[in-house]
Specification:
The protein is 50% helix and 11% strand. The chain is of the alpha+beta class. The protein folds into 2 domains: 137 residues, Up-down Bundle (Four Helix Bundle (Hemerythrin (Met), subunit A)), CATH 1.20.120.450; 97 residues, 2-Layer Sandwich (Nonspecific Lipid-transfer Protein, Chain A), CATH 3.30.1050. A 5-stranded mixed sheet has the order 3-2-1-4-5. The longest helix is centred in the middle third of the chain and has 25 residues. The mean pLDDT is 95.
């Protein structure tokens, strides 16, 4: 089980990210392009985030999620799209806060904490990544790691979720022609992982291999943003082509 942040910290992370997303979306304007999501406008970004919040809320409550097309139509007809986003956020936070600690609902990532914690964690990083997108829309470029509000601890948590949860999923599961390792180490000294790639599978574990084919180092914030293809920065040593291939294959989409 991952060493994740606690429930309250993740809930606070959702609220912080939602505020960043909303403020930057308002400043950029709904018709502004989103450089980190080619083909999207801010309107698309806000609609997507509001849809995901509502889907997660339904899942936490054990209810069937509404069809995506119905939610998107509701967003399109909203008098104020940002208020519509706010409504979904409040409902999500209320659902998480009122859920029992032993909540029994499905969750889709492997190596995850219990469902209430897992869904709070997932929505924290979902909202954080899309808040970075909103910053990009306002700036006209991907923000630098030093411009992000994200704490090193929250960034470390997000790296952990991405490497241990998303990377091994069949939907992504990056491959390499020959078995090899990528070591990921934060310069902050708060996290290290090894991703093992091969022709048939991808696995990941906590702790950096001493014999990795490639090594990624950088601040937790820099690695977090870079792994999510939202700018960021890191230093790669060893097989740089392997790291680029891994990054290209691990593109999480809805």
């Amino acid at each position: 089980m991952p060493n994740t942040l606690d429930f309250a910290e993740l809930g606070e992370g959702i609220g912080d990210a939602a505020a960043v997303l909303r403020n930057n979306a308002a400043a950029a304007g709904l018709d502004a392009p989103v450089p980190t999501c080619p083909g999207w406008t801010v309107r698309d970004l806000v609609t997507h985030q509001g849809l995901v919040h509502r889907w997660a809320t339904a899942t936490v409550r054990g209810e069937p999620a509404r069809p995506d097309a119905d939610v998107a139509a509701e967003a399109a007809s909203a008098v104020d799209l940002l208020e519509w986003l706010d409504d979904g956020l409040v409902d999500l936070l209320n659902a998480l806060a009122s859920a029992p600690a032993d909540l029994d609902v499905p969750f889709f990532l492997p190596d995850a904490p219990p469902p209430r914690q897992a869904w709070t964690r997932r929505q924290c990083h979902e909202t954080t990544v899309h808040a970075i997108d909103a910053m990009a829309a306002k700036l006209g470029r991907a923000p630098r790691a030093s411009e992000l509000w994200v704490s090193p601890a929250l960034a470390r948590d997000g790296i952990d979720e991405l490497l241990l949860g998303f990377a091994p999923r069949d939907k992504y599961s990056p491959r390499a022609a020959q078995p090899c390792d990528i070591a990921v180490t934060t310069a902050d000294g708060i996290g290290a992982w090894t991703v093992t790639l091969g022709p048939d599978a991808c696995t990941a574990r906590v702790g950096a291999s001493d014999t990795a084919t490639a090594r990624i180092t950088g601040t937790a914030r820099g690695i977090y943003a870079a792994l999510w293809n939202r700018g960021g920065d890191w230093t790669v040593s060893g097989d740089t082509a392997l790291v680029q291939s891994f990054r290209d294959q691990l593109r999480v989409t809805w």
